[in-house]
């Protein structure tokens, strides 16, 4: 097929642009999908639609102080593009620069269409194509596109609104309240008392970043989170680059870190009690003598039941040791004019309150989809190979790992997607639809993860089965066999 988009006409005779693949989202997943398509299937036409005015997704949206990756960039980066910075744990500007380079190096600039927000998508079996309605956010104009394949690369959370629980008495508070997802550029926290509500990756990033100039920073958590210090720079990875050059050194460092991540996760799964003891020992060494480690850093759940938070060079612990940051484990009874009153009766006064309370999960950007006029109910679908949905033809999505670097899975499924399209072209197939052969197959939540933001939305997400290919793997090794080296055909994947 030609790389140029074709023009077809709709039923009214108006011209409609047709593409082989329409990618939704120009973040790390969408850019990766675009690169794999252009490299592996250079004859295919495709475009990347981005609702916002710039690329980068998460790394352009979030602007709070200290924002950084919580995975090393040798695995969070793409397999095809070496990470050349000295820092293995990178901040948002470094990651954005890496993504912009990827776009330039692979000629994707003209493929990305900014301010294009997808309104809905409908599949027609008779025409064997998707019809996608799009709104131009910059002009308000609505346009219609058609495509053979729809590829969703929007992650799993809402970009327009973060999650903030209902806090009693919030209207009485006279200070400033801000959610990290909507950080104001003009917010001045210097010399002020800052209260960060939350204990996840965002909170542990914010606290040391704010502590540099704030009068005092307090992290208020209902329950502790597992937190481990990691080096911001990976000396072994940097040595490998010096010895073997960028390409080979990066590949070796990536392989090392994949094995390291898997070893840590496997150990925590197999020996949770031992893992808890080790994490506690590391935390105690990082904290002041006599610090109540069990109260503030020993969660009631096992390691990796929720994501383990990494703090580069132990910056959170340094802020606590230096007296610039504190941790309080308690529950909020109500907001007061000056801060929050806790269940224990203690009042925490604050000039600025940061609600680092999580995300609003939203699968596939909340785009309404239908198949032959019937709305797709995500909770009625089952994930196929962690990249397609039962009963939904010619639709693929990119959702990475929750227990490892996101991009590891994205790379595997993008490669598999390209091989699937090549197989269909060789055999003259136009339609591909996964169907569960056994209606009685037991299912469970698609994102089998204990984090609160997942539990709040689980009923509106797809399901996964109890066996391959309906089991959504969280193992890079297993996915390497199924997606990387495995066949694209399957008895439960139907072509026509």
Could you please describe the fold and organization of this structure?
By secondary structure, this protein is of the alpha/beta class. It has 2 domains: 288 residues, FAD/NAD(P)-binding domain (3-Layer(bba) Sandwich); 166 residues, FAD/NAD(P)-binding domain (3-Layer(bba) Sandwich). It contains 12 helices and 26 strands. Strands 1, 2, 3, 4, 5, 6, 7, 18, 19 and 22 form a 10-stranded mixed sheet that branches. A 5-stranded parallel sheet has the order 8-17-9-10-13. Helix 1 packs parallel to helix 10 and helix 5 packs across helix 9.
Features:
single chain, 496 residues, alpha/beta, FAD/NAD(P)-binding domain, 2 domains, ten-stranded mixed sheet, five-stranded parallel sheet, 12 helices, 26 strands, globular, N,N-dimethylaniline monooxygenase activity
Task: Provide the CATH architecture of the largest domain.
Answer: 3-Layer(bba) Sandwich
> So, the CATH homologous superfamily of the largest domain?
FAD/NAD(P)-binding domain
Provide the number of structural domains: 2
* Strand count: 26
Biggest sheet record: 10 strands, mixed
* Radius of gyration of CA atoms, rounded to a whole number: 24 Å
Helical content (DSSP H or I, runs of 4+): 25-40%
Shape estimate:
globular
Question: Briefly, what is this?
Answer:
Helices cover 29% and strands 23% of the residues. By secondary structure, it is α/β, with parallel strands linked by helices. Helix 1 packs parallel to helix 10 (406-426), helix 5 packs across helix 9 and helix 6 (235-270) crosses helix 7.
């Amino acid at each position: 097929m030609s790389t140029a988009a074709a023009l077809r006409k709709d039923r009214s005779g108006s011209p409609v642009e047709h593409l082989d693949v329409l990618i939704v989202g120009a973040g790390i997943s969408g850019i990766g999908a675009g690169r794999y398509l252009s490299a592996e299937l250079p004859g295919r036409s495709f475009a990347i639609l981005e609702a916002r005015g710039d690329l980068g997704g998460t790394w352009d949206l979030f602007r709070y102080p200290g924002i950084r990756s919580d995975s090393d960039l040798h695995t969070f980066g793409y397999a095809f593009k070496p990470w050349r910075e000295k820092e293995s744990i990178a901040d948002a500007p470094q990651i954005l620069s890496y993504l912009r380079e990827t776009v330039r190096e692979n000629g994707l600039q003209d493929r990305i269409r900014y301010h294009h927000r997808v309104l809905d998508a409908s599949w027609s079996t008779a025409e064997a194509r998707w019809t996608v309605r799009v709104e131009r956010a910059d002009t308000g104009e609505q346009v219609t596109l058609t495509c053979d394949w729809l590829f969703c690369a929007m992650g799993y959370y809402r970009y327009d609104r973060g999650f903030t629980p209902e806090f009693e008495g919030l209207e009485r508070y006279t200070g400033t309240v801000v959610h990290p997802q909507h950080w104001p550029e003009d917010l001045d926290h210097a010399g002020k008392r800052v209260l960060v509500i939350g204990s996840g990756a965002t909170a542990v990033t914010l606290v040391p970043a704010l502590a540099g100039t704030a009068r005092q920073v307090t992290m208020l958590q209902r329950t502790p989170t597992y937190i481990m210090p990691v080096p911001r720079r990976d000396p072994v990875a940097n040595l490998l680059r010096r010895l073997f050059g960028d390409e080979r050194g990066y590949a070796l460092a990536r392989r090392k870190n994949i094995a390291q991540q898997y070893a840590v996760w496997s150990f925590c799964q197999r020996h949770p009690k031992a893992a808890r003891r080790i994490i506690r020992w590391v935390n105690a060494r990082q904290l002041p003598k006599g610090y109540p480690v069990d109260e503030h850093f020993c969660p009631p759940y096992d390691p990796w039941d929720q994501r383990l938070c990494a703090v580069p060079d132990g910056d959170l612990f340094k802020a606590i040791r230096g007296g610039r940051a504190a941790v309080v484990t308690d529950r909020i009874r109500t907001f007061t004019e000056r801060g929050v009153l806790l269940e224990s009766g203690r009042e925490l006064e604050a000039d600025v309150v940061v609600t680092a309370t999580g995300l609003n999960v939203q699968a596939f950007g909340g785009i309404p989809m239908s198949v032959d006029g019937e709305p797709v109910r995500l909770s009625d679908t089952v994930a196929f190979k962690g990249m397609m949905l039962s009963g939904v033809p010619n639709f693929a999505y990119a959702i990475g790992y929750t227990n490892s670097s996101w991009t590891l899975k994205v790379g595997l499924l993008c490669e598999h997607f390209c091989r699937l399209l090549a197989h269909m072209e060789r055999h003259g197939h136009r339609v591909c639809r996964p169907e569960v052969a056994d209606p009685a197959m037991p299912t469970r939540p698609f994102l089998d993860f204990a984090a609160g933001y997942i539990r709040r939305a689980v009923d509106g997400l797809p399901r996964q089965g109890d066996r391959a290919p309906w089991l959504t793997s969280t193992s890079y090794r297993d996915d390497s066999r199924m997606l990387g080296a495995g066949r694209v055909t399957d008895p439960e994947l139907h072509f026509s």
